[in-house]
Structure formats: structure tokens, C-alpha cells
Amino acid sequence: MTDKDPDERREGNGADIEELGADVDAAVSKAVKTVELGRRGFTIAVAVFGLVVGLVLPWVGDHFGWEVLAGEGGAIPRLFATTSTVFGVAASALALATRRWWLTWVCAIGSWIAAVDGLLAIWSQQSSTASGAPGEGPGVGMIIAVVCMVVLGVQWVRVAWSRN
Which UniProt keywords apply (predicted)? Predict the structure, then answer.
């Protein structure tokens, strides 16, 4: 049936088994480093889009979110604009693209930091100024951005904790 003797066939099978073992080890190693996003990935993508929309709407007085990010409108709103853009847009996009587990933790922690910054930014717009008169209040873009950061924080924590 075959022109190989039994010893040669066993050696060939051993090499095949070693290759299969190496393939399984590589697949397990990759699975350990990545996460499965499922429906949460879509929710995260929608929240990132909402955050980008929030950046083109008014935040502080007549200043839009991207203008606040560029340095106008006060220090606390600028801090929120920076952290929400770094963690909410850039890190989330990178984590969605790579599905790396450690990036989900960066996004989860960073999103909650940005959400707290957002609450402080809203508070700073409602507080009294040096003259004693209350501020003009936050713009609709800032409120949308804070809501999106809270959604991102919840979703990224759920993804990070879901890893087996």
C-alpha cells in the first residue's frame, strides 16, 4: 500500500503533531492577549461617534469642542476635551481595531477619568466667576461628550472584565 516502512511513517506523524502543537500554542497565545467585543463593540463605536459629534457642537459660550481642545474656553474644559479625545476617541479606536486586552483596561480607566473631568468641566461652567455671577452653563456638546464618556467607561469595564 505504501512504500514507507512503519518507522518512517511514525516520524512523519511526530513532525505533524509537533506542527499542530505549535499552531495550537500560537492560537492560545493570541487568544490570551485579545478580547471578543461582540455587541459591545458596536455600542462603543456609536459612543465614539457621539463623542466626535459632541466635539463639533458648542461647549463653552460660543466656543465649540474642537476650539476648547485647541486652547480656548478655560483650563478645566480644556482638560476634559483633551482626556476625552485621547481616551474616548484615539484609545478607543485603537482598542476596537486591535482588540488587545490591556488596551481595554487603558480605555476603561481613562474613560472614567475623562468622565470625572467632564463633570468638573460642567460644574466649572455653572459656578460663580470672580464677579460672583454664575457662568453661562455648559454647551450641548459638552453634555453629550460627558454622557458618551460615561457610556464608554461602562462598556470598556464590561469588556475588560469579560475576558476569561
Answer: Membrane, Transmembrane, Transmembrane helix
Helix/strand/coil for 96:
helix
pLDDT tens, residue order, the chain (164 aa): 455 555 554 455 666 777 766 666 565 555 556 888 889 999 999 999 999 999 999 998 889 999 999 988 888 999 999 999 999 999 999 999 999 989 999 999 999 999 999 999 999 888 866 555 556 788 999 999 999 999 999 999 999 888 65
**What does pTM read for this prediction?**
0.77
Helix axes 140-162, 39-55, angle to 10 degrees: 160
Which are the contacts of 3, defined by CB distance < 8 A and separation ≥ 6?
A: none
Helix (H) or strand (E) holding 31: helix 6-33
